Amino acid sequence: MGVGVSVWSTKAAVPPVGATVTSPLQYPVGVSKSSEPSGLAPPGTNALRAEGYQFSYSTDFTGTALPPGWLTFNGVPGGDVGGQFSSGHVSVAQGMLHLSTWPDPRYNGSWVTGGLCQCGLPHTYGAFFVRSRVTGPGPTIVELLWPIGNAWPPEIDFNETDGGVATTSATVHFRPGQQQDQVRLSINMTQWHTFGVIWTPSRVSYVVDGRVWGQIDKPNEISQVPMSLNIQQQTWCLSAFACPSAPQSALVDWVAEYSHVGGESLVVGRFAPGLATLSPALRAQCARVVADARGYLYKTVRVVGYGVPGASRQAQRLLGIARARVTAALIRTLLGPSHVSVSATWQSLPRTRSVALAASQQRAVVALSGTLS
Q1: N or C: which end of the chain has fewer CB within 10 A?
Q2: Of residues 47, 234, 11, the one with CA closest to residue 129
Q3: Beta carbons within 8 Å of 177's beta carbon, 6+ residues apart
């Protein structure tokens, strides 16, 4: 987390404190298990297989020692001269990771916090989930992705409380000089939640309890640098926020991670009724298709165009193939000289009485597959 002015800012819809985010349930929350401190165990190894991800790591923080691969922080955090990390403030007990803040006599009674990283387990893109809560206000908790080699930026913070218990934020730091894009959410941080981030070549999606609550899709803000998961508490007393008045802890029940292994479908739509013209919004969606094709090294892009539901087969074919071809043509142009094979076809749709459904089907579906070895 850095201190500065947000150059880019987008605001998420903010539900009341403690409310449930109302977007569709898309991602794993955990598996019900009464013996878990939070009531949920880590998701299964196949939890994201349908989305093109394979299981890569999880830990339930059992026993009394950190799992292999986690390194604790010691010293003064970068950019926060008033803060102090100590490995003595990181512990594992009662089936949880504890990051604990208290005035430590070893540091002249200063507020000292705990933090750790999977510094030896870098990812380029992936899905990361942390089930956590805080015991009270004071220090900020930050769950983030940090660049390997410590060459900052980039940085993706997907749960950062700024010391409170009623809100969290998520921030992409994408350029020096504190250029960042941030969204905020009202939520009760003293309750257990599964926070997550889905990082792809074309977007960063922030997830809480299985539902997307914020998303960044500006191409210049999406990192291609390998990063690893960090979890930390931090105080900012010299900056007049996130300064405790009593000892507090951040509790983590488990961590789960998934790597992308290829294959996905993206929608380009909606087209205007009866037309095969690419609006600026549709052209931007094509650019995100190209970003994923490049980032994941896909070999095949297949565009399926759809016509008007319930129209004659000939009318559907003409409009569907027109939409597919114009979409495929732009994708080819944006790709430039490339190894990627781009094809276009069409598919018919049954008649529907739902005006909303008919409007939603004015689209092209782009299937990406076959990564390079």
Answers
A1: C
A2: 47
A3: 4, 7
With respect to residue 2, please indicate whether it lies within any of the assigned structural domains. no
Last residue of a domain, one of 260, 286, 320: 260
Q: Which of 225, 260, 295 is the last residue of a domain?
A: 260
Strand-pair category, 298-306 with 341-347: parallel
Dist. CA 252–CA 229, nearest whole Å: 13
Q: How far apart are CA 154 and CA 33, in angstroms?
A: 36
* pLDDT, position 326: 96
What's the confidence (pLDDT) of residue 371? 67
The span from the CA of 65 to the CA of 69, in Å, is 12
**What's the pLDDT score for residue 369?**
86
CA–CA dist 230, 164 (Å, integer): 20
Could you tell me if 305 and 283 are in contact, meaning their C-beta atoms sit under 8 angstroms apart?
A: no
| CATH number, residue 319 | 3.30.1330.60
pLDDT of residue 372: 47
* In a domain? residue 227: yes
CA 359 to chain centre: 29
> Distance of CA 18 to CAs 32, 89, 207, Å?
20, 29, 15
The domain that holds 100 is classified in CATH as: 2.60.120.200
Residue 78 class from Cβ within 10 Å (0-12 exposed, 13-18 middle, 19+ buried)? exposed
Please check whether residues 255 and 273 belong to one and the same domain: no
DSSP classification of residue 123: B
As averages over each run of 10 residues, the pLDDT of the chain (373 residues) reads: 30 38 84 98 93 93 96 92 95 98 97 94 93 98 94 96 97 90 97 97 95 93 94 95 97 96 84 93 92 90 86 89 95 93 86 57 85 52
Nearest by Cα to 200 from 95, 128, 103, 299: 128
**Statement to judge: residues 253 and 342 lie in one domain:** no
